[in-house]
Amino acid sequence: MGEARVALTLDGPVAHVALARPDARNALDGPTAHELRESVRAASAREDVRVIVLAGQGAVFCAGADIAWMKAAAHFSREESLADAGALRDLFETVDTSPKPVVARVQGAALGGGAGLVAAADIAVVAEDAQFAFGEVRLGLVPALISPYVIRKIGVSAARELFLTGERFGATRAATLGLVHRVVPADQLDAAVAARVRELLQGAPGAIAAAKNLIRSVAGRSGEEVRELTIHAIAERRASAEGQEGLGAFLEKRKPRWTS
């Protein structure tokens, strides 16, 4: 067995899932993508986990694709290339569809697939000196696997510029585009992540999972198209144990049980 490429640790209701290849700038290769996907899946399946913090050890969050892996992939058969791409796509989808809120803690750089992980996360908190790029065209490639998550965050217009130029851009612009949500000095990064986690722990776990699913279900569709879906969504949550507890706590001027 080789050395673990991803570290999964638990801190009460918070699962910390960290890329653990700092010497390789936490670059993604096949085994790393597999370990990261399985770690997120494992954390997502635990009833005692309410928030997942996605991070990278060392100076860089994730530098994108591993160079040695890209070199090997250049000689893959078509079938091997399709299987490899499918496995990597499953990583981003696993992050995106986790029923737990996923907070990306970003320092240094998030390039290519690393920026895709940021886009797939629910909330991204980044150091103010962090850099981002979708530089695939400069390698003769395209950011295909991450495109659904990135375009959903930054929109078509920004994607046209950044996908086509492959240029680097900073944290402030990433926030302006909606790719990230909080930009803080590097020495305040952990405190800012902890603050987001505390806010997430105020919400009911089932309601948060339902809210994530609601966003995916209604995004890009008209109100009439999702009329029945939204009616049923609120009716079900009102009748749920969490809905009853939350309303009862509000009326009784006490904290709901999930915050204790």
Describe this structure in words.
The strands form 2 sheets. A 6-stranded mixed sheet has the order 1-2-3-4-6-9, with helices on both faces. It has a 3-stranded mixed sheet with strand order 5-7-8. The chain contains 10 helices and 9 strands. The longest helix has 20 residues, at 78-97. It has 260 residues and is of the alpha/beta class. β2 (14-19), α1 (30-45) and β3 form a beta-alpha-beta unit. It folds into 2 domains: 6-200, 2-enoyl-CoA Hydratase, Chain A, domain 1 (Alpha-Beta Complex), CATH 3.90.226.10; 205-259, Lyase 2-enoyl-coa Hydratase, Chain  A, domain 2, CATH 1.10.12. The radius of gyration is 19 Å and the shape is globular. 49% of the residues lie in helices and 15% in strands. The N and C termini lie far apart (41 Å).
List the helices and strands and how they pair.
Layout: E1 6-11, E2 14-19, H1 30-45, E3 51-56, H2 67-73, H3 78-97, E4 102-106, E5 109-111, H4 113-120, E6 123-127, E7 131-133, H5 147-165, E8 168-170, H6 171-177, E9 182-184, H7 189-200, H8 205-218, H9 227-239, H10 241-251
Parallel strand pairs: 2-3, 3-4, 4-6, 5-7, 6-9
Antiparallel strand pairs: 1-2, 7-8
Quote the distance from N terminus to C terminus.
41 Å
| Strand percent estimate | 15-25%
Helix content: 40-55%
Helix tally? 10
Unreliable stretches covering 5 or more consecutive residues: none
Overall mean confidence score, pLDDT: 95
Strand order of the largest sheet: 1-2-3-4-6-9
Radius of gyration: 19 Å
The rough form would be described as globular
Sheet with most strands: 6 strands, mixed
**DSSP strand tally:** 9
CATH evolutionary superfamily of the largest domain: 2-enoyl-CoA Hydratase, Chain A, domain 1
The number of distinct structural domains comes to 2
Q: Write down the CATH class of the largest domain.
A: Alpha Beta
The CATH architecture of the largest domain would be Alpha-Beta Complex
Within the CATH hierarchy, at the fold level, what is the topology of the largest domain?
2-enoyl-CoA Hydratase, Chain A, domain 1
SSE order, as H and E? EEHEHHEEHEEHEHEHHHH
